[in-house]
Every structure is written in structure tokens, then in C-alpha cells.
Design a protein that fits this description.
The chain is of the alpha/beta class and 386 residues long. 65% of the residues lie in helices and 7% in strands. It folds into two domains: 122 residues, abc type-2 transporter like fold (3-Layer(aba) Sandwich), CATH 3.40.1710.10; 195 residues, no CATH class.
């Protein structure tokens, strides 16, 4: 009797194992027959490596810093500015692909305006007694003001200090130099978190690409879109209703993100414009929803919509400078770059002028309009609701 029971159990186990194997093979075949799923399986590793290579490849390869220098050492006719000229010469000769030094006739006010709008990365002030201090074994001092980015401040100041100290050593002067560094933001010392916090808001919004695509993919799978197509409701109205509902959700999320950053101690300039602080993320959300419409027009299932959304989200986040600043020509064509730039100016520097933000606003609006129009055109196709 026991032998019979054992045989029956063994047969059942083999039968269950056979079912699991058969179902697994069936699922694998189904995935590989779905073209969209195939694109995700093969394309995701490709887009992941390409995006990371572009982002980290350019950041790791010595980004260029735009710097204005004021050589006050040679302002007076009687001054000997031998060592200030040597300092500038070394940078221009050996570090020209790393620091783009501008020695043209900027006024101090014009230079600070450029720095305020982040058109440059820093300003170097060489005092009028720089050469005299080195020759007489005094402390040679240099002042540096940078954008409110700790990395930029640290890199520029360390390079200048190394060069000046080497000049001092060559001249047999034993007194180390003194580099006074400041970050341009109402004299507030900012952390890396403070400077990247505005980008966290933008990063949070990119998820709406997936949300909108998943919404319409679900309605396709349940047949809701096909039934709505038999009613007098125009397809563009169906599309606009989906966008409007997502914009309401995004608006709530933006407010929550801003409040959470405030509670966690992120820096907000005293001159921050609350209206612009919400407007810029909303404009970027409009752009993201444009991407979402394109996906909604091209995908038929929730799994494909959710997977393909990352083909857009990853480049937007990493090439747009959400998590770190990058010096990459590709970023000029990524809308996230302009959203991040505008948010840093508004939140960290308290800038709210059209002169500073106009380009960012127009680019975001342009991206949103073009993507939305293209998505509407594709959504009008009969196959878009099947």
C-alpha cells in the first residue's frame, strides 16, 4: 500500500513539474512573440548602457569650467605683475581644455550678473599685491566666487591653490597661499543637497510619463477606449481628459515635493518666487505628458507601456542633469536640462526675471506643444484605440 502511495505522489510531482515547465515555456514564447516586449527585453540593456555612458563618460572626462579673471595685480602702472601673468599663462597654456579663462574687459557688476544667471562657473580675483607678496615672502591671497555648487567650488579652488603654491615654491618662498572661496547665493553656504534639491522636484515629475501611458493602456486592455469610440466623444477630447486629470495629480505632487524639501531643510532663497516655483515644474509636466501621449498612441498593454516609459525617463533624468551636473552637448537637447536650470535659479538664487528664465520657459513650452500635437496626430489613428 505504501509503495502504491509513493508511486502516486511521484507521478503527481512529475505532473506538476510538467505543468510548470509547460506554462513557463508558454510564457516565454508569449513574451518573445510580443514585439513591444521584445523591444523592452533587448532595448532596455542597450538604452541603460548608452545613457550611463553618455552621462558618466562626459562627467568623468574633465568638464570645462567657464571662469572670468580680474587681474588687479597689474592695474597700477608701478606694479610688477610677473606672477599673476604666470598664473594666467599656466591656466591658458596647460588647462585650456579644463578651465575656459576669460580675461576680457568685464566690469565686476557684469561678471556677477553672469554668475548669478549661471552663464559662467566662477570669478577669480587676483589682488594688486599678489606678485609683491610672493617676492617678499608674504601670504599670497586670491579670492574665488563660484556658482552655489560645492563640487565646482572645490575643483576650481584646489586647482588655483596648487598652481599658486607651485609658483611660490619655485620662487623659494615658504609661505603657503591663501584661497578665499565663496559661493554666489546671498552669502549662504550651501550643501550638495541644497544645490540638487530643485532637480529632485523635476525627477519626481518624469514618472507621469509612465502614469499617462499606463492609464490609456489599461483602457485599451479593458475595451473602454473602443466603447468610447462608438460614442460622439472625439478622440482628442478623450486624450485631453486624460492629460487634464494627470495635470491635477501632478500639481498636488509638486506641492507635496516642495513642502517635503522645505521640511527636510533644503535651502530656499528669501527672494524665491512661489508662482514660478510651481510654474516651471508644471511646464515640464506638460512636456512629460507629451511623451506619455506618444507612448499611449504606440502601446497596447500596460506591461509594454510601463517598460517603454523608461526609454524616455532614463535619458531625461541622467542626461538632463537631475542627479549630477554634466558637461555634455547632448544635454542641450534634453528638456530636463532647462527645467533644472530654471528651478535652481528660482529656488537657490532667487532669480525671477525673464532675461534669466525666458529661454528655459520657451524651450519647455515648445517641447510640450510639439510632443502633444504629434501625440494627438498619432492618437487619431484607428489602431491607437485597439
Amino acid at each position: 500500500m505504501n509503495m502504491v502511495n509513493r508511486k502516486r505522489k511521484t507521478k503527481k510531482k512529475k505532473k506538476y513539474k510538467g505543468h510548470i515547465l509547460s506554462l513557463s515555456i508558454k510564457n516565454i514564447k508569449t513574451m518573445f512573440r510580443d514585439r513591444t516586449q521584445m523591444l523592452w527585453i533587448i532595448g532596455y540593456p542597450f538604452i541603460l548602457i548608452v545613457v550611463f555612458s553618455l552621462a558618466f563618460g562626459f562627467t568623468a572626462a574633465r568638464p570645462e569650467y567657464d571662469v572670468i579673471v580680474f587681474d588687479e595685480d597689474g592695474q597700477l602702472p608701478e606694479n610688477d605683475n610677473e606672477f599673476s601673468l604666470l598664473l594666467i599663462g599656466i591656466i591658458e597654456t596647460y588647462l585650456d581644455d579644463f578651465i575656459d579663462l576669460n580675461t576680457t574687459s568685464y566690469t565686476h557688476e557684469e561678471a556677477e550678473e553672469e554668475l548669478k544667471f549661471e552663464e559662467i562657473d566662477g570669478i577669480i580675483y587676483i589682488p594688486n599685491n599678489f606678485t609683491e607678496a610672493i617676492k617678499n615672502n608674504y601670504t599670497a591671497k586670491i579670492s574665488i566666487t563660484t556658482i552655489p555648487d560645492p563640487v565646482t567650488e572645490g575643483v576650481i579652488s584646489s586647482i588655483i591653490k596648487q598652481i599658486v603654491d607651485n609658483i611660490i615654491i619655485i620662487h623659494n618662498n615658504g609661505t603657503p597661499s591663501e584661497i578665499d572661496t565663496n559661493r554666489y547665493s546671498n552669502t549662504v553656504q550651501l550643501t550638495s543637497f541644497d544645490y540638487t534639491a530643485p532637480a529632485f522636484i523635476i525627477a519626481g515629475i518624469t514618472v507621469c510619463i509612465s502614469q499617462l501611458a499606463l492609464h490609456f493602456a489599461e483602457e485599451k486592455e479593458t475595451g473602454t477606449l473602443k466603447r468610447l469610440n462608438t460614442t460622439p466623444v472625439a478622440r482628442r477630447n478623450i486624450l485631453f481628459s486624460g492629460m487634464l486629470s494627470q495635470l491635477v495629480v501632478i500639481a498636488v505632487q509638486i506641492v507635496i515635493l516642495i513642502l517635503l524639501l522645505f521640511l527636510f531643510g533644503a535651502y530656499f532663497s528669501p527672494e524665491v518666487n512661489i508662482f514660478l516655483l510651481v510654474l516651471i515644474p508644471m511646464l515640464f509636466a506638460f512636456t512629460c505628458l507629451g511623451f506619455g501621449i506618444l507612448l499611449a498612441s504606440l502601446t497596447r498593454s500596460q506591461s509594454s507601456a510601463g517598460g517603454l516609459a523608461w526609454f524616455i525617463i532614463l535619458p531625461l533624468q541622467f542626461l538632463g542633469g537631475v542627479f549630477f551636473l554634466i558637461d555634455n552637448p547632448v544635454s542641450d537637447y534634453i528638456p530636463t536640462t532647462y527645467a533644472n536650470h530654471a528651478m535652481r535659479l528660482i529656488m537657490v538664487s532667487g532669480v525671477s526675471t525673464w532675461e534669466a528664465l525666458g529661454t528655459d520657459i520657451l524651450v519647455l513650452l515648445g517641447f510640450g506643444l510639439v510632443l502633444t500635437i504629434l501625440g494627438i496626430i498619432l492618437f487619431q489613428r484607428r489602431t491607437a484605440i485597439l
